[in-house]
Amino acid sequence: MSETNPKFKVTIDGVEVEVDPGTTILNAARLIGGDVVPPAMCYYSSLQGSGGKCRTCLVEVSKGSEKDPRPMPKLVVSCSTPIMDGMEVKNKSSEKVMDARAGVVEMLLINHPLDCPICDQAGECDLQNLAYEHGKSTTRYEFERRTFDKVDIGEYIKLHMTRCILCYRCVYTANQLTDQREHGILNRGDAAEIGTFIEKNLKNEFIGNVIDVCPVGALTDKTFRFRSRVWYTKPMDAHRDCKCCSGKAVVWMIGDEVARVTARKDQYGEVKEFICNECRFEKKEKSDWTIEGPRHIDRNSVISANHYEVEAPAHTPLLNKA
Amino acid sequence: MDRKLLLEHIGVEGIHTHDVYRKQGGYKAVEKALKSMSPDDIVEEVKKSGLRGRGGAGFPTGMKWSFIAKPEGVPRHFLCNADESEPGTFKDRYLMEKIPHLLIEGMILSSYALGCNQSYIYIRGEYMYVLQILEKAIAEAYANGWLGKNIKGSGFDLDLAVTTGAGAYICGEETALIESLEGKRGNPRIKPPFPAVKGLWGRPTVVNNVETIAAVVPIVNEGGDAYAQFGIGRSTGTKLISASGNINKPGVYEINMGITVEEFIYSDTYCGGMKNGKKLKACVPGGSSVPILPHYLVCKTAAGEDRLMSYESLSDGGFATGSMLGSGGFIVYDEDQCIVRNTWNFSRFYHHESCGQCSPCREGTGWMEKVLHRLEYGHGKMEDIDLLWDIQRKIEGNTICPLGDAAAWPVAAAIRHFREEFEWHVNEPKLCVTKNYGLVTEKKFEPVNA
Q1: In this complex, do A55 and B360 lie within 8 Å of one another by their Cβ atoms?
Q2: How far apart are CA A190 and CA B370, in angstroms?
Q3: Which positions in chain A touch B400 (Cβ < 8 Å)?
Q4: Taking a C-beta distance cutoff of 8 angstroms, is the pair B88, B136 a contact?
Q5: B176: chain A residues, CB-CB within 8 Å
Q6: Domains, chain B, ranges and CATH?
Q7: Which residue from A17, A133, A191, B274 lies 20 to 30 Å from A122 (Cα-Cα)?
Q8: Which residues contact B3 (CB under 8 A, 6 or more apart)?
């Protein structure tokens, strides 16, 4: 099919790429890769309807299309704006975009507790990366920050609403991945919160995936909470025979112990194969898993800064001993 | 041309009932349209009339109608946006309360023009008593054969229902309205796709304001060209203005677009001048979300021409020296009022009404409200003024729906035109808590109607 379809040409930050009609600017940029990819806090390619909310992926369209070369009057969200033939997009090369993005980061951070030193997400947090790249080191916000009580939503998941940036990813995940949706957004405006109406438990075989899709530390794994900083653990690709999911996961080891299990994330932090609760929370023995080898993490995170993979061959015999 | 088009028979006893309305020439337009006009004829007439959306944005209605997608076998929907929640605007309530059959007649005509067989009126939750009036009127229309199957033997079916929201400002945004009508949380959708392609239940949908729909009735009755005779330039027809504030006669007025603002404020036909003989300080001409105008820009534009009550003239000069007609919520402030307090009040409203979906609006509206509160209560700092300017700049244009813009514009305009008042609040922290700026300064507002 793709051979017969005409391809659309789009230029992002001066790099040209040909994509299928209907592709969004963000996905076109991801085809190019590297620096031209706008950051995304709420868009998640496998979740239908996600995107458009966090406004971090705003880009400037300096030329609408070949047919209608007028620039778009406002900045547009790259995650849900489809490309047109001959479109020219400015991401990092536009000052307007960088200014707006800095504004969005500032807005996201004014009510964020910035408790990174005690947050389990630290080191693999999208908001941390975003703030590091686009934020300022000081804040102009001088008021009390919004806080919520921590809520246990089920046996394995802790909801720390104070850290939430309301990306809606977990709501879409629960909606689209599981049979019934048990949580959603309550209230309005900056009082909006993720909640299970009248503090119900989230019970579903796949509900653990909301932890993986959460860009910040609002949803954390109770079996791993406060056990270790992520950069002290060693991610290993592993798999097991599982009745309900693919069984392909990443186990995060502390020595010979499995500290936690997550799904495999790609370079944009997105999970392609969701795993079930049993694999995630209950299989915490090394013997449960067949370990394939070190996991390559190519996102700009603290974990990848360790470059432990280089030494991996030396460790391999050790792994096989057990 | 002082004739009224919408409120012509408003004074007639019992006009809210079908029989009286019919006696005054009601439902004539429906008879005419169903007998002698095709749906496209009506769209054509509306295009000719130059009618522009009365909900605030002022988008040409005929053009909006022609955008609706018409795929085979997919029902289309027509929705009436009666979620009128803009502070300062109360024209739709008046229209629905006094003369509900005009809206129903407009709904029938518009639905016929667009080929919709199921239409809805989405009314805000606070208008519960208006809902009862509308439901009674709809029942009457059904009983008299104006609604239902095969209306007056024309073969056109239309069902009309009224739904209430739960009182959220955001549900006046058309995609949020559609979400709410579908029974979901009233969050605006990300566009594209636009409702004309994918709206209610994924079907092509058109959403129009109450007043816009009512205006279709005179357009069909008298023809688009005759309607276009009213008004001035591209602002054709009449407009309902909800006048409030420090004026002698607040209320809803139907004006022929093109009268001067000065006439509107000072003439006895309309607002009847400033209350207690005070001087005019400022005016918000189109509901809380449009920029405020200082006294020297209300009656005259920056170029020195008379400012008229029309889309073009009110926005003359852009946001630097102009404003917008918006939804027609005309708020007048006299010399005693405090602009900072007013801006804080508006900001508080937008903070409360932000849906919380996109980050700049969710966090920014709250931040602005807190900073304005601090200024108003004498804890402000000089940097706060620039901070406010920066926050509003970061919100404007960067949000999913226009609520972000609506929250940013009044703050921007207040700082642009009344910066010294903000500075006074910083310099006089004790005084500003007890007295309004206008009451303590020597500064006198030059009379503009001299």
Answers
A1: yes
A2: 13
A3: 52-53
A4: no
A5: none
A6: 18-229 (3.40.50.11540), 232-334 (3.10.20.600), 339-440 (1.20.1440.230)
A7: A191
A8: B230, B256
Residue of B nearest to A72 (CA): B397
CB contact under 8 A, B168 and A106: no
- Report the complex ipTM: 0.87
Q: What Rg do the C-alpha atoms of chain A give, in angstroms?
A: 21
pLDDT in tens, B204-250: 999 999 999 999 999 999 988 999 988 888 899 999 999 999 999 99
Q: What is the mean pLDDT of residues A198-211?
A: 79
Q: Is the pLDDT of residue A129 over 60?
A: yes
d(CA A83, CA A22): 6
In the beta sheet, which residues pair with residue A234?
A: A253
pLDDT of residue B182: 92
Interface check for A100 against chain B (CB to CB < 8 A): the answer is yes
> What is the nearest CA distance from A173 to chain B, expressed in angstroms?
17
The pLDDT of A162-191, averaged and rounded, is: 85
In contact, A134 and A102? CB cutoff 8 Å: yes
B364 token code pair: 């920014």
Contact B358 A189 (CB under 8 A): no
Residues in Cβ contact with A175 at an 8 Å cutoff, skipping those fewer than 6 apart? A181
Residue B439 has pLDDT above 50, yes or no: yes
CA pair distance B390, B360, nearest whole angstrom: 12
A313 at B interface, C-beta within 8 A? no
* Token duo for residue B229: 């005779």
CATH architecture for the domain at A116-221: 2-Layer Sandwich (3.30)
Burial of residue B303 (number of CB atoms within 10 Å: 0-12, 13-18, 19+): exposed
User: Under 8 Å CB-to-CB from A153, ≥6 apart: which residues?
Assistant: A159, A183, A196, A199, A200, A201, A202
- Chain A CB contacts of B351 under 8 Å are 189-190
Chain segment B302-320, per-residue pLDDT in tens: 888 889 999 988 888 888 8
Encode pLDDT of B67-85 as tens digits. Answer: 888 888 899 999 999 999 8
- Amino acid occupying residue B12: V
Residue B449: per-residue pLDDT: 45
Q: Check A189 against B352: CB less than 8 A apart.
A: yes
DSSP sequence for B93-136:
HHHHHH-HHHHHHHHHHHHHHHT-SEEEEEE-TT-HHHHHHHHH
Q: So what's the pLDDT on residue A300? A: 58
Does domain A8-100 fall under CATH 3.10.20.740? My reply is yes
Are residues A110 and B367, on separate chains, in Cβ contact within 8 Å?
yes
Nearest residue, CB atoms, A190 vs list B190, B366, B400: B366
| Residue A317 pLDDT | 47
Q: What is the model's pLDDT at position A48?
A: 86
CB contact under 8 A, A189 and B367: no
Mean pLDDT of A73-80: 90
Cβ–Cβ below 8 Å for B394 and A103 = yes
Verify whether the Cβ–Cβ distance A110 to B365 is below 8 Å: no
Give every strand in the sheet of A257-262, ordered side by side. Answer: A257-262, A248-254, A234-239, A290-294
Residues 6+ apart with CB under 8 A from B360: A55, A103, A104, A107, B394, B395, B398, B399, B404
The tens digit of pLDDT for each residue in B379-416 reads: 999 999 999 999 999 999 899 999 999 999 999 999 99
**Weakest mean pLDDT among A170-184, B269-283, B298-312:** A170-184
pLDDT interval class at A2 (50, 70, 90): very low
Asked, as a colleague might, if the bond just before B192 is cis with ω within 30 of 0, I would say yes
pLDDT over threshold 90, residue B450:
no
What does the domain layout of chain A look like in residue ranges?
8-100, 116-221, 230-321
Binding-site residues on chain B for chain A (CB distance < 8 A)? 168, 170, 185, 190, 192, 351-360, 362-367, 370, 387, 393-394, 397-400
